[in-house]
Amino acid sequence: MSIIEAIILGIVQGLTEFLPVSSSGHIELGKALLNVHPADPLLFSVVVHAATALSTLVVFRKDVISITTGLVESRKSESFRFSVYIVLSMIPAAFIGLFYNDLIEQLFEENVLLVGSMLILTGILLLITDFRPAKDKPLSFVNTLLIGIAQAIAILPGISRSGATISTAVLLGVNRTDAARFSFLMVVPLILGKMAKDLMDAKLNVSSDLLIPLVLGFFASFIVGLFACNWMIRLVKNSKLRYFAYYCFAVGVI
Questions:
Q1: Given this model, what pLDDT does residue 243 score?
Q2: Separation of CA 77 from chain center
Q3: Buried b / exposed e across 54-71, counting CB within 10 Å, b at 16+?
Q4: What is the signed CA dihedral for 38, 40, 46, 49, rounded to 10 degrees?
Q5: DSSP 186-237
Q6: Residue segments in the chain with a per-residue pLDDT below the cut of 50
Q7: Whether this model's pTM surpasses 0.85
Q8: Res 42: pLDDT
Q9: Which residues pair with 137 in a beta bridge?
Q10: What is the pLDDT of residue 123?
């Protein structure tokens, strides 16, 4: 992987992690179009996902502090409940990651047909969501678990994680802004957990010739992610997901 290829893919990740068009799917399509064949298909994906996780922490730094303190606050506090919801939402995806990791890795090998099919499915979900009348239900244990299941399904490359979780939340009646906020925050512990697991399993061994491309890809993803995160919140609030649905249809068919 060259420096230019790493920067391009980092930009793709930073933009598509927050936009509902599947970052993992676009990374796989990007690798296929650029003819990039890394020895470890998941290594670059883990690095750039870490970058977008960091950009999420920066954008939602006040919420992150609230979640952290909420775990030690009174059980009746709003911060504590939100912290519990974050933990609950992680369970389905964590289960899949722990017990089906080898199967997941096989999906990240330029499976273009799968990515295209799942992008079309993502487009259908976004289109349905955009025409859903706005409601203002609070998060609960039940809808948080359902949002977590949507996140677990979105492990498939081509299904947008943010699109699946935001759409599920909105279809369940959650306020659109809260849906976007929760969607972006709920993935951070999973990304950090995935990195920690791979480090303990010694799976993230980086060769010297890949170090600079990975670092530049990381920073490209982080910087673009800062802008994309704020942009996506405004788009969800203003019900403009249908445009991304059309985009998913076009890319999926192509």
A1: 87
A2: 28
A3: bbbeebbeebeebbeebe
A4: 20
A5: HTHHHHHHHHHHHHHTT-----HHHHHHHHHHHHHHHHHHHHHHHHHHHHHH
A6: none
A7: no
A8: 64
A9: 174
A10: 92
Query: Are the CB atoms for 157 and 24 separated by under 8 Å?
Result: yes
Burial label for 113, CB within 10 Å (0-12, 13-18, 19+), is exposed
* Beta carbons of 58 and 226 less than 8 angstroms apart: yes
Give the HSE-up count for residue 213: Cα atoms under 13 Å, Cβ half-sphere: 18
Q: What is the pLDDT of residue 105?
A: 67
Structure token pair of residue 218: 């990381």
Residue whose tokens read 């676009």: 26
What per-residue confidence (pLDDT) applies to 233?
Answer: 79
CA 136/CA 199 separation, integer angstroms:
41
Helices 78-99 + 61-70 axis angle, to 10: 90
The confidence score (pLDDT) of residue 237 equals 73
Query: Which two tokens mark 101?
Result: 């990791």
Q: What is the pLDDT of residue 62?
A: 83
Specify the pLDDT at position 63: 80
Rg (CA), the chain: 17
Q: How far is CA 66 from CA 16, 20, 57, in A?
A: 27, 26, 12
Res 221: pLDDT:
93
Contact between 104 and 94 (Cβ < 8 Å): no
